[in-house]
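A.,

Following up on our hallway conversation. Structure tokens first:
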């Protein structure tokens, strides 16, 4: 999704809707926009702060300076503006949802293409191995090395597919407004750590 998804006035209204959820500093607003568009639109500070200043000038937003941090909050007038434009906001939300869905489909297609590329690399490696084997006498160790290289290619493909699938699911969930509690990320981290330790232990056993 490109910045053009937010047509004239849409971004202004969407900023109000974000601040209606909770007061926020500028970077937090930028991050929220990035998350809700699946990482496809990250506005610059030069885009966000002038609009916040305009909303403040109109009395729709207030700001509080705490040291080096400026927190923005919606005012009663801002909430009234949101209420009067509920239909417009619903249209913006629907557009974002459609865009995120399209991006998710594009990511899935990219994963498929990456898998095709990996399979092609695997086939090329096999061909090179066969050619090298014909050029010199075979030994028992050669067969083991060929099998190991084949499994290494397969392991790469499995890891890449897993990463792409989880990343897509997480980004799509968050972009559609879903919660991502720390417990879920911790569970993912623990699971990956356990898998890594299991692989290390298995490899250690084989090398003895």
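Then the amino acids I'd put at each of the 208 positions:
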């Amino acid at each position: 999704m490109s910045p053009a998804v937010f047509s004239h006035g849409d971004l202004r209204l969407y900023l109000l809707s974000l601040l209606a959820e909770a007061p926020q500093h500028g970077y937090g607003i930028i991050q929220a926009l990035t998350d809700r568009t699946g990482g496809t639109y990250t506005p610059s500070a030069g885009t966000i702060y002038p609009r916040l200043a305009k909303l403040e000038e109109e009395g729709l937003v207030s700001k509080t300076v705490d040291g080096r941090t400026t927190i923005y909050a919606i005012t009663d007038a801002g909430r009234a503006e949101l209420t009067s434009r509920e239909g417009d906001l619903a249209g913006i939300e629907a557009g974002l949802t459609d865009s995120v869905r399209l991006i998710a489909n594009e990511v899935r297609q990219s994963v498929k293409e990456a898998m095709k590329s990996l399979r092609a690399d695997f086939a090329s490696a096999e061909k090179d191995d066969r050619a090298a084997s014909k050029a010199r006498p075979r030994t028992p160790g050669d067969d083991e090395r060929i099998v190991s290289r084949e499994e290494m290619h397969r392991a790469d493909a499995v890891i890449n597919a897993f990463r792409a699938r989880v990343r897509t699911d997480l980004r799509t969930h968050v972009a559609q407004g879903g919660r991502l509690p720390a417990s879920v990320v911790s569970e993912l981290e623990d699971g990956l750590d356990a898998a890594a330790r299991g692989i290390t232990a298995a490899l250690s056993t084989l090398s003895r």
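The first helix runs from residue 10 to 21. Curious whether your intuition agrees with the design.

B.
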